[in-house]
Structure formats: C-alpha cells, structure tokens
Design a protein that fits this description.
Largest sheet: 9 strands, mixed
Distance between the termini: 73 Å
Radius of gyration: 33 Å
Helix content: 25-40%
Strand content: 25-35%
Bound molecules: serine
Length: about 850
C-alpha cells in the first residue's frame, strides 16, 4: 500500500529532481485572481506566468487543493467524483514543452509508481500531430486515441490560457464498464479512468472567442491525487483510499447503514465534510453570498443524506477532527482552525435542521398530490423559506421523477426580489450616489483633532444644496476632516464647527458616518453656511479619547481571550463607543468566573506595562506573514493598516514579538497606559457559539469604583454596630434603597435604549412625520411609547412611525394622531408603501398599525423611511 502522503512526496521529489521548484498549495480562494470563485486546478496560482505577465520562473510543481462543484450531483453516486480534491501538477513556463512533458509523465506513471503498462491508454487532440508522434514512439499506436475538442482541448474558463491536451487513461477492467463491444478509452462509461491530463498551453482565449498564441509555450499538467491513490493500490473507489476510509469509519460510529443507498450517502457526506472543513478553515463562512453559498450548499446536501440515513442531529462537525487528523501532515494550518471550523459547521447544521424536516415533508406532500409536475411557486417556497439550495431541490425531484415549471419559479423569485429590494434600491442608490459624487474625504483624525476645512457638499433630504440656513439639520462633506466616520465597529465622532475668523460656533456635529470613503457630518446648524466656506472643525476631544481607550482595549481583550480560551476565539463583531464597548466572539460556552478574572488580569497587566501602540501600513501579504489578526469575513485592500501593540517590527521583520497585531482602521491610544484601567461588566450569549463581553475603561471604571466603594462603606458601617434596634430600620432603608436602585437601573436601561435611538422630524404636505428608530427593543415597548406620543401630539397633525431592529428582524408601529385622522388621513396608504418597500407585513386600523418581518435591507435609515412614506 502506498499511502496518499507518500504519493504526494514521491511526485514532488520526482519533479524536484527534474529542476522544478516545489510550490505550496495556494488557498482555495485564488490569490492570483480573486475574481475566480475557487481554485479549480494547480495552474491557477501560476496564471500570470502562463500569460507572460510574470517572468523569472521556468519550472514548478505542486500539490494543489481544489474545489469544483460543477458535478456535485454525481458526488457519492460514482466511485470517482469529488468536490474537494488535490491535484498533482508540473508546469513549464516557456521552458520545456510536449516532448519532455510526455516522456516524464510516462516515466513517472510506469517506472516510479509502476502502474501496469498494459492497462494504460493515451488520448490526444485530433489535430495535434506533434503529441501523437511523440506518444507513438513510447506506446503502440493502437493505444493512442485521437479525440475531439470536447475532451482534448483544455480551457480554464471563457477566457485565459488554454491549449490541446493529452490524457493518460487507466483501464479499470471490464467490471467497471458498460460491456458494450464498442467500449474503449473514448467511452462515456466508468471503465477507462482519466488519471493525468497534460495540457500544452499555447493560447490565450479572448472574450470574443479568438485564440491568441502565447508568446511562450507552456506545460500545465494535472493528476487527481485521490484517483492515483485508488489505482496505485488497486482499490475500487476513491472513497476506499486512506484519504476517505477513516472518515467513513468515523461516520459509521454514529450512522448505521440501513438503506440500500447507504454507501452513496456516506461517500457523499465524506466528500462534503472535507470540502467544508478546508473552505471554512480558510475563512469562507457558509452564507448567502457567492463562495459562502457554495459551502452552504455542500453542507446542506450532506445534511439531507444524513437525514436519509435516519440521523437527526448535527453530526458533520463531529467528523471535522478526523479530517484534520488525516490531512494535517500536508496542511498543518488546519489544526489551528479545527475547533472554530467545527463550531461553525455545527451552527450551520443546527440552522438547517430546523427547516429540513418541514421542507422535506412539504416535498413529500406536494409530490403525492402532483401528477408528475409541481408548481414553481412551491419550489420557490422551499428555496426561500426552507433554505433548500436550488440544486438540492433539483436533485431530489429528479430522484422522484418530478418536474416543475422553471418559469413560475423565476417569476416568484422576481416578485419576491421586487418586493424586498427593487423599489428600495432606487432610494438607496440615490442616497449613496449623492455622497459618492463628491471626492473622497481626506481623514486627518489619526493625528489631529481639529483642522481647517472647506465645505464641498451640503445635503438635506437627499438633495444637494448650495447653502443651508441656521437651525437646519444637514449632512456636510468637507475636503478633509479630523472626524472619524462610523466604521469597523467604532462610532462616529461628534464636535463643533467654528468660523475661521472669530471662532464662533456655526454648528454642532452630532454624528459622523462614512460612505465609500466620504465622511458625512450630520450637523445641526446655528449659522447659515455655503458651499466653499472655510471653517474650523473641532472633535469633542474628551469623547474621542474615551473611544480610543475602548478601541485599543478591544485589541488587548481579543488577544487575552485567545490566551485564556484558545486560538479558536475570533472576533465576530464589536461596538466601540465612548461610554463602553462590546466585543462578540466565537466560543461555545459561558466563561467561568475564573476565566473572566484571568482575562481582566492580562488586559490590565498590558495596560500597566505601558506598551507602545504603533501603526504600520504595509501589504496584506506581509501583514499575514507577520501573523496579523484579520477579521474572518472581511475583505481587505492590498495596502493595509496594522495596529501593533508592544514588541518591535522593523523592515517587515519581527524583532520582538508584539502582544497584538491586528488589521484595523480605527483610532487608537499611543500607549496602552492611556487606557488607565479595564473592567468587564458582563459576559453573555448572543447566538449559537457566540459570546459577548461588555466592558469599560478609564474614567468609566473610576466612576464604577466610586459607586461600589460608597456602597461597601455603607454596608460595613452598618455591620460594625451591634445595636440591633439601630440596625433594623437601617436594613429596612437599604431594602427600600435597593428597590429604588432597581427602578433606577430600569430607567438607566431605558436611558440607554434612548441613547441609541435616532429620530427624524420632517414636515411635508401638512403632515408632521415623526420617525424614530430604537434598536434592540420589542414591539411592546414601541406600542407603549407610541401611546404616549399619540397622546402628547393629539392636537397636532402627526404621523408617528417607531421601529426597532434586532438581529435580522424589524418591528414597526405606525400611529396617526387624532387631529390628522380628522383631516382624513389614515394609515392605509402608508401601510401599503411600507409593506411594499420593506417586504414586511403591517396591519391594523385607520389610526394604528403594527407588524414586522425580516429586515432585508442593510443600513436602513430614518431618511429612507421618510422617503418611502412620502413617495
Ligand atoms: N489544468 C488542467 C486540468 O485542470 C491540468 O492541470 O485538468
């Protein structure tokens, strides 16, 4: 038995001895061309060398991890189809060509790994006489087949390097085949297995279909490791190789193969779990977007097979350690992410298992009632509501010999999209375009907290203005600014605008946002302003310093959590404000008191050490090499900003290991000492495998300590008296105080809710639109608040819309005041507009409506709602 690891080594050693440079596998997201979905072949990382854009490399070889899902429906059903596989390849860039490529491949196959020559056949492209001639000197002509473009002309996609190819085919024997007399290496059946593909890359395919000869001729070969491993060891299937066998065994610990198709299902699951493990460990999280969706589809297909094997619990995540164990010798990085990958897969499993049953029942029901065909709308429901990937539905229906109306499906999909997005997009597009029509704002706020700037744009209700009047609430864009626009979890700055001449306050900047590098200052004006005015911008220094303390502390906390809990801890979101910060991270259980103390201790230790915080701008690649922590899902530009705490990095080399290196665009202290002190206030769960820490720094901790000390003094004074008659009334008082305190806390919480709330008051056509967004609350709260407001404004013409957003849900309460109702205005037409534009469901009476749904729109703003209402 030659195991897979030996084969990888033998292959690379062989080509190394032929002067090839051994390259490590590229990631599954192609680094040479991130526009490609996945790395599908060994040549992808060398694309620029093939096209002559990069030079200096003559020969290379690699074992490349690849992902292809074009044949996913076959995976499990055949002995050879896979989504994730490894490709052995040797490459020449303008160096050797067909003769050497063919001779070396032959030597490897027959001498080095000694496949049975009598079982080997060759195919060449029918017009490639050169390849035919070379082969005919090696094998007898009866064994060489001339085939068409379809099989023997290799293209990477619709464009790019391509050329004729020659395949080395292995005869698996009659039992694998169709047994027709015509069966041969050109047969569609399974008997003749393509083992190695030698591509003679000589063209660059243009988008218009033209083949432009490449300046240099290249070689690109690809051989599937799993297949080679199968034939070398005389096995019947890739799933019997050492790459899969232990995975199947592991699955069998949980699943008993009770149905006829068990092997099919188990094989498919084994492939899919490998694909998911590799992809997720590279940061491709299951999601509804491009790459993430492919991974989601793979996991969901596997789960359906798990279900068909009568297992109803999350299981895939339990197999992850086995995959890692098998593959870690070649891919040691897998081990680093093992727990994180398992957690992510587990939560993905839990999510789909919630709807899988009902979806499958729905299919059973409609299939029973159908006469061979079901409606496209039901298919859409399965897809949209039950989360069944389209390919999975297709596969299930194909098994049941049922068809559906594709047109109807597309129609239902279109309708849903229109409701959720289309009309909405219009508004969004206008508002975004308005900002992006201005040049990017130069941000000065890393080093300056005040600056003179020129007004480039004034925006009010989606309209550009040349001037604005005092008392207006407007958005202003300057040529440059020290104000940080809300992004990366850090809230926006606030402050004032002053006149250059007499330092008079012209306006108050209440908040600062960022849209594609334009920094937008939401400003209440105290004086008139005009485009091109020069003004002085002053950030509220005290507030900003608190924000910086909290931001630098999140980096310390992140690193401390990794130290205490393990390397799987990864940031999943954060909010850095002036009065506190919160930090969400991946971890599967609540922290113990001891763990919290340890984390607190480490962070405070690093604060006391007064570590310098330095900023280094560098290339993403270098940052990664230095071990910078990057957010899992975030896409970064080529040039990145590293925040380095402690240690020493010089000329892109680590001289002394820093405590933390993170990619981050936020504003930070110059030295950890500025943070003062750090205190964790709470630790809680915010979702499956997601924890949240809320903490405070600096002055906030000081206030907190004062409060606690005061309480402690009161208690100890009390306990020091022995006179019970004296104590009892005091205890009574404390109980009362406590009740009062509870109330205060409730009020404080309410205050917090309102602190986060935003409101807008606009008047149009005699109606006062009062719109308020209160994050993280429920509809009951909105109703109570709306009662108060409707009462308060009953003698005025108010439309009151309160909404709350929590996770992905939105709740809305809409009220019409008595006076407005008397003017003949009801909720009716507004309900329609809201429902249509937001794709949610509101219902109710003429003066009151409530409802909600899934928030399909990102960054929904008050202005957006206002626009919808007045449309
Ligand atoms: N690029 C070719 C293939 O994918 C050979 O590596 O088959």
């Amino acid at each position: 038995m030659t195991n897979s690891h030996q084969i990888r080594e033998i292959f690379l050693k062989y080509f190394e001895s032929l002067d090839h440079i051994v390259f490590k596998s590229d990631s599954l997201i192609p680094s040479a061309d991130p526009s490609l979905l996945f790395t599908t072949a060994g040549m992808v990382q060398f694309k620029d060398y093939f096209l002559g854009k990069k030079t200096g490399l003559k020969r290379a070889c690699s074992v490349q991890k690849c992902l292809r899902t074009s044949d996913i429906e076959k995976v499990g059903h055949t002995f050879r189809h896979l989504t994730f596989f490894e490709m052995l390849g040797n490459f020449s860039f303008g160096d050797y060509f067909k003769k050497e490529a063919i001779e070396w491949a032959w030597k490897f196959i027959t001498d080095v790994i000694q496949l049975d020559r009598s079982r080997i056949y060759i195919t060449v492209y029918k017009h490639d006489e050169e390849a035919y001639e070379i082969w005919s000197k090696i094998v007898s002509k009866e064994r060489i087949y001339k085939l068409s473009e379809e099989t023997n002309f290799w293209k990477m996609g619709n464009t790019g390097p391509c050329g004729p190819c020659s395949e080395i085919i292995y005869d698996l024997g009659e039992n694998f085949g169709c047994k027709r007399p015509s069966c041969g290496p050109d047969c569609e059946c399974n008997r003749f297995l393509e083992v190695w593909n030698l591509v003679f890359t000589q063209f660059d395919l243009q988008p218009d279909g033209k083949l432009i000869p490449l300046k240099q001729k290249n070689i690109d070969t690809g051989m599937g490791l799993e297949r080679l491993c199968m034939v070398v060891n005389n096995l019947n299937s890739v799933f019997e190789t050492d790459l899969f066998f232990p995975i199947r065994q592991e699955l069998l610990k949980y699943i008993s193969p009770s149905t006829l198709d068990s092997t099919t299902y188990i094989n498919a699951i084994s492939d899919h779990i490998r694909a998911a493990t590799f992809a997720i460990s590279e940061g491709i999280l299951p999601s509804n977007e491009a790459r993430g969706y492919v991974i989601r589809k793979i996991i969901r297909r596997a789960l359906r097979y798990v279900k068909l094997l009568n297992y109803n619990q999350p299981i895939l995540y339990k197999i992850v350690p086995k995959v890692v164990e098998i593959m870690k010798t070649s891919y040691p990085e897998l081990e680093l992410h093992r727990e994180k990958v398992a957690l992510i897969i587990k939560s993905e499993e839990e999510k789909f298992l919630e709807t899988l049953d009902s979806g499958l029942n729905l299919i059973e029901e409609v299939v029973k009632e159908s006469k061979g065909k079901i409606s496209g709308e039901i298919i859409f429901k399965l897809y949209d509501t039950y989360g069944f990937p389209k390919e999975l539905i297709d596969e299930i229906l194909k098994e049941k010999n049922i068809s559906y109306d594709e047109e109807e499906f597309l129609e239902a999909q279109k309708k849903a999209k229109e409701i959720a997005k289309a009309s909405w997009k219009g508004i969004k597009a206008i508002s975004k375009d308005i900002y992006t029509s201005f040049p990017s704002t130069i941000f000065l706020g890393y080093s300056q907290l005040s600056a003179t700037a020129r007004i480039l744009g004034i925006i009010k209700e989606n309209q550009k203005l040349n001037k604005a009047l005092k008392t207006d609430l407007v958005e202003i864009i300057f040529d440059k600014t020290p104000f940080y626009g809300e992004s990366g979890g850090q809230i926006g700055d606030s402050g004032v605008i002053e006149s250059v001449e007499d330092k008079k306050v012209i306006g108050e900047i209440k908040d600062t946002k960022k849209v594609e590098n334009r920094i937008i200052h939401i400003t209440k004006l105290y004086e008139n302003i005009e485009i091109n005015n020069e003004v002085v911008l002053k950030v509220d220094i005290e507030r900003r310093k608190n924000i910086m303390r909290h931001h630098t502390a999140t980096h310390l906390l992140h690193r401390a959590l990794k130290e205490v809990l393990g390397s799987h801890v990864a940031q999943a979101g954060s909010l850095v404000a002036d009065d506190y910060f919160r930090f969400d991270f991946i971890h599967w259980k609540a922290l113990t008191e001891d763990e919290i103390l340890q984390v607190e201790k480490i962070v405070n230790q690093k604060i006391l050490e007064c570590l310098p915080v330095s900023i280094i701008e560098t290339d993403l690649e270098i940052a990664k090499k230095l071990g910078a922590v990057a957010l899992f899902e975030e896409k970064y530009e080529k040039k990145v900003r590293m925040v380095v705490i402690g240690g020493r990095i010089e000329n892109e080399e680590i001289i002394e290991q820093p405590f933390s290196i993170e990619l981050c665009g936020g504003t930070h202290c110059y030295n950890t000492g500025e943070i003062g002190i750090f205190k964790i206030l709470s630790e809680s769960s915010v979702g499956t495998n997601l924890r949240r820490i809320e903490a405070i720094c600096g002055k906030k901790v000081y206030q907190y300590i004062n409060y606690i000390t005061q309480k402690l003094t009161e208690i100890s004074e009390l306990l020091s008296t022995k006179n019970y008659e004296e104590i009892l009334p005091k205890i009574e008082k404390i109980i009362q105080q406590n009740k009062q305190l509870q109330k205060e806390i409730e009020n404080l919480k309410l205050g917090l809710i309102f602190q986060k709330a935003q409101e807008l008051l606009e008047e149009k056509n005699g109606i006062k639109f009062y719109i308020k967004h209160i994050p993280d609350t429920d509809i009951k709260f909105l109703r109570t608040l709306s009662d108060e407001l409707t009462k308060k404004y009953r003698n005025e013409s108010y439309l009151i819309l309160l909404y709350s957003t929590k996770d992905e849900k939105i709740s809305v309460v809409l009220r019409i005041t008595e006076k407005l109702l008397k003017e003949g205005i009801t909720t009716k037409k507004f309900i329609e507009k809201i429902n249509f534009n937001l794709g949610i469901k509101l219902g109710g009476r003429d003066d009151f409506a409530q409802g909600g749904g899934t928030l399909k729109i990102k960054d929904l703003s008050l202005i957006d709602i206002f626009q919808i209402l007045i449309k």
